[in-house]
Amino acid sequence: MRIAYLSIGGHIHTERWLRFFVNRGHDVHLMTVQPVPMEGVKLYDIRTGIPVKPLHYAVALRKVKRILAEVRPDLLHTHFLTGYGYWGAFSGFHPSVLTVWGDDVYLTPHTSFLKGRLARLALRRADLVTGDSEDILEQAVAMGASKEACHVIQWGVDLTAFKPDAPSDVREQLGIPADSPVVISIRSFTQPYYNIDVIVRAIPRILAERPDTHFIIAGNEGDDTELRTLARDLSIDERAHFVGKIPHEELPAYLVTSDAFLSVPSVDATAVSLLEAMACGTPVVVSSLDSALEWVTDGENGIVVSPRDQAGLEAAILSLIDSAERRAEFGVIGARIIRERADHDTHMTRMEELCLELVERWRKTGGALEVR
After folding, report:
1. What is the DSSP letter of 343?
2. Is 14 in the same domain as 82?
3. Model's pTM, two decimal places?
4. Are residues 314 and 349 in the same domain?
5. Residues near 172 by beta carbon (within 8 Å), at least 6 away in sequence
6. Looking at residue 215, which CATH number applies to its domain?
7. Is residue 214 part of a domain?
8. How far apart are CA 106 and CA 266, in angstroms?
9. For the chain, what is the domain count?
10. Which of the listed residues 144, 238, 275, 314 has the most CB atoms within 10 Å of its CB?
11. Is the Cβ–Cβ distance between 342 and 270 less than 8 Å?
12. Contact at 8 Å (CB) between 33 and 47?
């Protein structure tokens, strides 16, 4: 298959997805405004340098149409509903796949009438829609996607790397004693709805009861300056290790050394970092979002708290720190769930099957495609 992608260049989700299809022998092309070279991928820079958004989108759309006419792919696959989704929809290309990510469904379409209209149009025009949770696809259907065209496809976990017995020297690197509890957060700093500030504000109470506890605060995107300042103001900076972006290949080492993983956003799709933590046998604390509850049952394989419930978060962390037996039980169950339901290769293979089926149906019907 020759596949043209519209997606965020340089993002781990894009890289892992495209790498799978390259390794499967497909001819992969990427159109993006964040051009980062990828081995085996033909890259197209659709940046315009135009600061006025409507004009930028219009000029970039002309580039997209020209590239599609030159490449003549079997399939157009757009990632992210807003922004890239607009180009995919207005390109007029079929068959087309749209993969939604998170706030492109939960937040952005609801910030203005125009963005809502464009998002609904993009969803209606897609021949196939994928997302990483039932909840996000229900939201997509509510905005116009065909229910029959929607499929849950996980970004998935590399189970050869993310596993409970992954090697780790993180404690030695950070100077954390072998018997000290470690709590980790690796959600991005880009949006306030990830609630990293609540995690930082919870640290003083944890240290009051367990002063030997260490916190690792990482994020793949964004600036942590304000959070570092907050930690200094709270006099906890000696126990809060801000490590910035952790390379993906090093992440298992951080997860297996941690006694609790925190993911407590106010809105979110399925967090890949949550699944990776579970795969490593790390006990998890999550916020009570439908996307998280598809994976975590409170008191069975993790602890569920309400978003921005600082007292609840503090209690959850302390309950895990204080019970090695509970941590072990949660870790075993969580790792089993991920092995059964979130293997990266399994989900990408299913995605490949869906794409091949879509292309074949498009050819057989001469473009008169009925989604199913």
Report:
1. B
2. yes
3. 0.90
4. no
5. none
6. 3.40.50.2000
7. yes
8. 10
9. 2
10. 275
11. no
12. yes
In a domain, residue 372? The reply is no
Enumerate residues 6+ apart whose C-beta is below 8 A from 190: 219, 221, 222
Tokens coding 63: 């580039």
d(CA 280, CA 358): 35
Identity of residue 224: D
Residue pLDDT, tens place only, 58-96: 999 999 999 999 999 999 999 999 999 999 999 999 999
7, 83 Cβ separation under 8 angstroms: no
Measured CA to CA, the distance from residue 336 to residue 278 in angstroms comes to 9
Indicate if 37 and 139 belong to the same structural domain: yes
Handedness of CA 326, 335, 283, 179 (dihedral sign): positive
372 pLDDT higher than 90:
no
Among 75, 127, 122, 129, which residue's Cα sits nearest to residue 100? 129
Residue for token pair 């497909």? 26
Does residue 163 lie in a domain region? no
Short-list 325, 280, 331, CA closest to 302: 331
Range 332-350 average pLDDT: 97
Residue 164 lies in a domain: no
